[in-house]
Design a protein that fits this description.
Elements (H helix, E strand, L loop, with lengths): L1 H34 L5 H5 L3 H20 L6 H38 L3 H31 L3 H9 L4 H11 L1 H16 L7 E4 L2 E8 L3 E6 L4 E5 L2 H4 L3 E2 L7 E9 L5 H14 L3 E13 L4 E9 L2 H22 L22
Antiparallel strand pairs: 1-2, 1-5, 2-3, 3-4, 6-8, 7-8
Length: about 350
């Protein structure tokens, strides 16, 4: 009877104490969160209640099972698996706390920062730090679990003699990975590119959707996702349309006939630009930039608050000017000129 009651008491006591500890911590965090609503950290930390219960429960169970000797014949095996579960639960709790801290810092900074670009930079840095720490915690937890097995300890000891050679081989093999790792840190803290930036890479326009320590994802305007190593941004040139501010300047080119009414076309351009909600009010102009024997090149320059507004404004200006020319001055549109050939005079002999 004692062999049956002892495991029940140990399990029941451990789970009860674990829930009591988790309830007390959750209640404390709730009270702090109520007193300091401007800091979201305490509310976010409450999401770690489940891993906290797991850590406390397994820790108590490990201590109680060893002292109570609930499984005399299998005590060593039980303790081994309890240590493994404890390591996993502790890593789970650490990652939950890390995620809460990162989210709290990012949310609070976004609320007080007046510069959206600076807020995106902080978000990018925090995201990369979180993923780097997550990788480190995962590796440490996996290594700690492997070291719980005696065979792994023996294997690790036997490999120390060749650690120098293995280090050289691993360094050569991991050159690309380490290069991407340092490139990711350079991007995060060098403010080279941030999540939400609008970039042009190899002729592809898109928005930076995700940055990790090894790769970067760009979401294009047609909803494709381009994945590339972060080392690309430290070794090749690219366009960042969001750096220094989201406002942009764009151009509209028209090929017209030499007889096109430039002054009237300039006045019409001003009317179209001022009537558009996408214009930011900074600048517009229209000039002749080139000429050929058959046409002239007319360039309209407009400004907008964002790249999306600029694209819409450019399309609107182009459509409105072509429609106006077709209706009011059709002769200004380029075409093929031809004239009747003059008769060749007859020679005197004829």
């Amino acid at each position: 009877m004692e062999d049956v009651l002892r495991p029940v008491i140990v399990f029941g006591g451990a789970i009860t104490l674990a829930y009591l500890v988790a309830w007390a911590v959750d209640h404390l965090l709730q009270r702090i969160d109520t007193r300091r609503p401007e800091t979201p950290l305490w509310g976010l930390l409450r999401k770690g209640r489940l891993p906290l219960i797991a850590v406390v429960f397994v820790a108590l169970l490990n201590g109680f099972s060893s002292s109570a000797h609930i499984a005399r014949g299998h005590q060593e095996t039980i303790n081994l698996w309890l240590r493994i579960v404890l390591i996993g639960a502790a890593a789970w709790l650490a990652l939950r706390v890390l995620a809460a801290v990162v989210e709290a810092v990012a949310s609070r900074y976004a609320g007080v920062a007046s510069d959206a670009a600076r807020a995106r930079r902080v978000r990018t840095q925090l995201t990369l730090i979180q993923r780097l720490v997550t990788a480190i915690v995962t590796v440490i937890a996996a290594a700690s679990i492997l070291l719980q097995f005696p065979a792994m300890k023996t294997f690790g000891t036997s490999m120390l003699a060749s650690a120098g050679v293995l280090g050289i081989v691993a360094g050569i093999a991991a050159q690309s990975t380490l290069g991407n790792l340092f490139a990711g840190l350079s991007i995060a803290f060098g403010d080279m590119v941030r999540i939400g930036d609008e970039v042009v890479i190899d002729g592809e326009f898109g928005t930076v959707d995700e940055i990790t320590v090894s790769y970067l994802v760009v979401l294009t305007w047609d909803e494709r996702r381009i994945t590339m190593p972060v080392s690309y941004f430290t070794s090749k040139p690219f366009e960042n349309w969001s750096r220094g501010g989201p406002q942009l300047t764009g151009t509209v080119f028209l090929q017209l006939d030499h007889t096109a009414p430039i002054e009237e076309l300039r006045a019409r351009t001003g009317e179209v630009v001022r009537a558009s909600d996408n214009w930011d009010g900074r600048l517009w102009s229209l000039v002749v930039t080139d000429s050929t024997p058959t046409t002239i090149e007319v360039r309209a320059v407009v400004t907008a608050r964002t790249s999306g507004d600029l694209w819409t404004l450019r399309c609107t200006v182009r459509e409105e000017l072509l429609t106006w020319l077709r209706e009011k001055h059709p002769y200004a549109l380029p075409g093929i000129r031809y004239s009747a050939a003059e008769p060749t005079p007859l020679s005197k002999s004829e």
